[in-house]
Write a structure and sequence with these properties.
This protein is mainly alpha-helical and about 110 residues long. About 90% of the residues lie in helices and about 0% in strands.
Amino acid sequence: MKNEVLAEHLRFFKETEEGQEELSEVDARSVARGEIRGEIRGEIRGEIRGEIRGEIRGEAKGFVKGELSMVTKLILTNKVPLELLAATSGLSVDELKIIKNSLLNPA
């Protein structure tokens, strides 16, 4: 009995124009839902990636500011040779000299 009903429904969708139209509408709605879901997922992924990139950039800027602050304080103590600061800070001796001059002779 169930097979007969199923076969009848299948014939309706396959063999009648009304059945074909109904399937087309269902298919179009399914495609639209899929597109909307895809857009939402894409937006969420994009937002998450943007937030992560922003956090990384913020942390990097904070780290650089902290390093520069430390270097500045050490230069002002005048107890650490610029060569040693250059070796540990990643800045060149020339860059450190520029920083030192700007600290000692503000514009």
